[in-house]
Write a structure and sequence with these properties.
binds flavin mononucleotide, 7-stranded antiparallel β-sheet, alpha+beta, 12 strands, 218 residues, Pnp Oxidase, Chain A
């Protein structure tokens, strides 16, 4: 029996205790809002059967199923992209790199009803393998999607789409077949700002991985 002897804190608990003792945390209640940050910021490309391609910036997006792979994008009905997606039910979700962030911001500030965003930004529409919508050549990851469900949520409508094919830029694929995305980097959107993904904090499962005993210790 251990009695009331204090338990030896694990590395994880030690770190947590140190933080709460040093900085007591109190909370204030705010109005409900879209405070889940950061989120990916993507360029969604679409095209009608007989129209020009269009693209639009979307931050209300995410992965929602692993098998089949599915993503969700939320669009307001006022977007041209919404109209085209409603008609075609196909799009490409293109992942921009930090050096494409100016173009990404631009594509979220003007409508394809007024300008040809491909022409203005210099981004290149290229054929997809499974959908009619073009992918954006300069984006290293392109998810070719078909819409499976549409949910009207409020001012945004959620398109839940299955990923039919993924294209990646060949120059970023290592000889072992890994996508070396860090060569060009990834971007995120948080609280109204754009960020380049920075310092790596750990790998999946690192908190439960057995630590190797340090030299000279049991
Ligand atoms: C960073 C950023 C994120 C955006 N996210 C969304 C979004 O998630 N859903 C949406 O409907 N509009 C979003 N927008 C606004 C559209 O991209 C914008 O209205 C665009 O001009 C629509 O273009 P379109 O009319 O050619 O479709 C975002 C804009 C920016 C700059």
């Amino acid at each position: 029996m251990q009695g009331n002897a204090p338990k030896k804190a694990t590395g994880l608990a030690r770190r947590r205790l140190k933080r709460t003792e040093a900085t007591p945390i109190s909370k204030i209640v705010w109005e409900p809002g879209t405070m889940l940050n950061p989120v990916p910021v993507v360029l969604v490309s679409v095209q009608d059967a007989d129209g020009p391609p269009n693209l639009c910036t979307v931050a209300w997006t995410g992965t929602v199923c692993s098998e089949p792979p599915m993503v969700a994008i939320a669009l307001r009905p006022s977007r041209l992209t919404y109209d085209i997606l409603m008609r075609t039910r196909e799009c490409v979700v293109n992942v921009p790199t930090p050096h494409l962030i100016r173009a990404t911001d631009y594509c979220g500030c003007v409508s394809g009803r007024d300008v040809d965003k491909f022409e203005k930004t210099g981004l290149t529409p290229a054929p997809s393998s499974k959908v009619h919508a073009p992918l954006i050549l300069e984006c290293p990851i392109n998810l070719e999607c078909v819409v499976r469900q549409i949910l009207e949520l409020g001012i945004h409508t959620l398109f839940i789409a299955e990923v039919l094919a993924v294209q990646v830029s060949e120059h970023l694929v290592s000889p072992s077949g890994r996508l070396a995305w860090e060569k060009e980097g990834l971007a995120a959107f948080a609280h109204g700002g754009y960020y380049a993904l920075g310092k790596k904090l750990g790998n999946f499962g690192f908190s439960v991985k057995k630590e190797k005993p340090r030299a000279g210790k049991e």
